[in-house]
């Protein structure tokens, strides 16, 4: 998509447009998606049902890709960017560079006008394309934009833009390019500067609800189909969901159905307990090369203090072992959005269903959307109004189902592992190497160490071009070390089959982290989730008799004398790995 | 070319008189503002490398300092005259005023040709110039800066001499110093970028997409090069540049229909902005007469060399296609030529507005020197853009609402501010 003419050019005198552009290149995948959605929303505006929430794209300015080219050229940054230096070194070099003179005046003007927190987001050419799974590789930075004086706010904005640019050359991104066999030099970066959807509560700014909706559900729950889609809701900034943290998951076809859990205690244990906000108060640490410089994590108690939780949760009644909607009494809060989903206090589900349908029709494909909800008071009625900010849309890679049934019955003695919840379809017979987290010594306390141990083994196996099976516990790719092993994609890029298992001390809902899943499917990696008793469903004894190649405190890398066979059938939703 | 008849100071006074009539200025204000407040002439003896002594003629003219300390460059030029310096100091007053920075106007010069002087001889001229005027200039009186054929090194020699005489550190005495020695990031680019910031606003006002325009530029010195750089980054295409050839002592134009490549030209340019003709030919440039830049079929003309370049005798060669003239140089258009341009409906961004980026950034340098805290380049250039844009908008708004020619509108704003400052101080 190329932006032509003056029509959407940034104007200092008239900033009434929902979106405008700086530069003359391309807007990148994310921004192009939002522009397209704006057109759809404009067309559909008259048809909005009464029982829906107002939807719009938060105001944004896009710095087009030619500015990135100028920035790289005028500061001669490619030698450093491509030098394989560590991330901090690259980031600092970018921080010292200057932005092209063609845009600095406009940025200064923008920051003088902007009166709310800003999200500075990447929008690269390859990002968010369904063919190239670049989602989540590059950085996003939230700015409170409330510092004293334009100088300070302008400075923070320029720091954020340079940080986003530099993230293209960070090790995660470089590894990513290696994995897909492309060169990082091919990529160009546009940057979106967008108003953050949310409200200020004391020293925090966050949306009432943030979420991700998909028209296709990789893991259909009871009584739902893949085509019904799935929605994840969380309190606070969307980082909770996109990083694979705990959120409320439901099917838009049946918003009242709770997820399948063993007990109410399980439900509480596996619900959102923390949320992210933008720090609006005093910043004690200066760190322009940190994505979360201005972000903060809170317990949900903070939201209760902020007085916004009554529509978002149920309260556990200990004496009756049940949940009652809202906060009519003291008790443990479950963020299940029940007043909204069960009692339709806000017509969120209807709005989301309609948006998902619109996007699917427009894209002729399954889609994933990100959104956030903010609250305001209607001046006329004095009642609260809700506004849904549409933040992103991208096409999903749906599973290509194969009519051949490939899961036949196999003798138990031949089975290394079995799963009744899988992603992918087909057979893989080229794997000799298995990397697994040792179940006996596993503890979530060590999950960061485990991630780095796996990354080291992955580097060696990738270098030797040896595909491998990866077995671990909890949610792969979660940014929360208590929910799973916090690997980034590049740390496990050589794995061709992955088992995500639960242990008694770690059994969250399995991965639905949007970026991570997008990548799994794009790269055709077999994914087997095992929620049964781990001792029974994986043959650990057999694993322990294989030749050890590397052994660290928490991780083993073994090599089998002959290949293992991974068979996955997505229609039956079953998978098996044969010794 | 009738250069002998051209008197830049007379031209500056005619421009002033015209605006004074429009503003209906009182006689006292007119008398005060149409002449410099102070004018210094002095001799600078220099022991040359060959052992002889040569005496150079130096000037400093302080036109008006009602709005703040005077500010103006120092030119080293063999054809320097006091009338040129007087005119330039007058234009500096208007320039500082039109961009609304709290400074007055001055200018200085030495009659010399740096091409024929060693570095040591140039240093002695710089130090000699300061010795003659050290008690009449200074950070709170009159702040010099680089100009034609002077640069950061000259400024440092002058600063060193000034500080030696006064026995203290005065980083704010002079601007245009090298970065790291009290200079400001962005100063080198400021004038050329400033020209393009105003050009961008003019094109926006005329509803012309920069990316669909072509330009021809006179000069290939600092101002021209950075103007070409930014204009090209914004999508425009420069098809012709002209420059002075030191060996042949005349200027030539270099044309490439597909657009000049700035990096390519820079690689074959000497330190005074002269482009190597032979190499340019190898790169596919057509070598034309020095005045050919003016007659190109382009949308934009950027005279960014010397004064008195668009005259009665050559103004008719300007193509009908030209829509904007952005005057990067000081006084490039004579009043007679200006009348023709005005009649032909070409949008002019007058010199003292278009090229005010340099002095604006010098002002930023002074501010930084006073704080002894130096800004990042993004900070400098963004402030510069805002200042230049806002000055342009003030002028164009007045021009539109009062149906004035841009140059007249700019003069009205600038002269009115200075006249008001003189009144407020009780001088008139």
Protein model, in words:
- The complex is a heterodimer of chains A (579) and B (428).
- Chain A folds into 3 domains: 178 residues, 2-Layer Sandwich (Dna Ligase, domain 1); 181 residues, D-amino Acid Aminotransferase, Chain A, domain 1, CATH 3.30.470; 167 residues.
- By secondary structure, chain A is α+β, with helices and mostly antiparallel strands.
- With 428 residues, chain B is of the alpha/beta class.
- Chain B has 14 helices and 12 strands.
- Chain B has a 7-stranded mixed β-sheet with strand order 9-8-7-6-10-11-12. Chain B has a 5-stranded mixed β-sheet with strand order 1-2-4-3-5.
- Chain B is globular, with a radius of gyration of 21 Å.
- Chains A and B meet through α5 and α6 of A and α6 and α13 of B.
What's a concise summary of this model?
With 579 residues, chain A is an alpha+beta fold.
Question: What does the secondary structure layout of this molecule look like, with pairings?
Answer:
The complex is a heterodimer of chains A (579) and B (428).
Chain A: E1 19-22, H1 28-44, E2 54-56, E3 60-63, H2 65-74, H3 78-81, H4 87-96, H5 101-113, E4 118-124, E5 140-143, H6 149-167, H7 171-180, E6 189-195, E7 199-201, E8 204-206, E9 209-214, E10 230-234, H8 239-242, E11 248-250, H9 264-269, E12 274-279, E13 295-299, H10 300-305, E14 314-317, E15 322-325, E16 333-334, H11 338-341, H12 348-363, E17 367-377, E18 384-395, E19 415-419, E20 422-423, E21 426-437, H13 447-463, E22 468-473, E23 495-501, H14 514-522, E24 526-530, H15 534-537, H16 540-544, E25 547-551, E26 555-569, E27 574-578
Parallel strand pairs in A: 1-3, 2-18, 21-22, 22-23, 23-24
Antiparallel strand pairs in A: 3-6, 4-5, 4-6, 7-8, 8-12, 9-10, 9-17, 10-11, 12-13, 14-15, 14-16, 17-18, 19-27, 20-24, 21-26, 25-26, 26-27
Chain B: H1 8-23, H2 27-33, E1 38-47, E2 53-64, E3 70-76, H3 82-98, E4 104-110, H4 119-133, E5 142-146, H5 152-166, H6 187-205, E6 214-218, H7 222-233, E7 237-245, E8 250-255, H8 262-266, H9 277-282, E9 286-289, E10 300-303, E11 324-326, H10 335-343, E12 347-349, H11 351-354, H12 357-371, H13 377-402, H14 406-424
Parallel strand pairs in B: 3-4, 3-5, 6-7, 6-10, 10-11, 11-12
Antiparallel strand pairs in B: 1-2, 2-4, 7-8, 8-9
Helix pairs in contact in B: 1-3, 1-14, 3-14, 4-5, 6-7, 6-12, 6-13, 12-13, 13-14
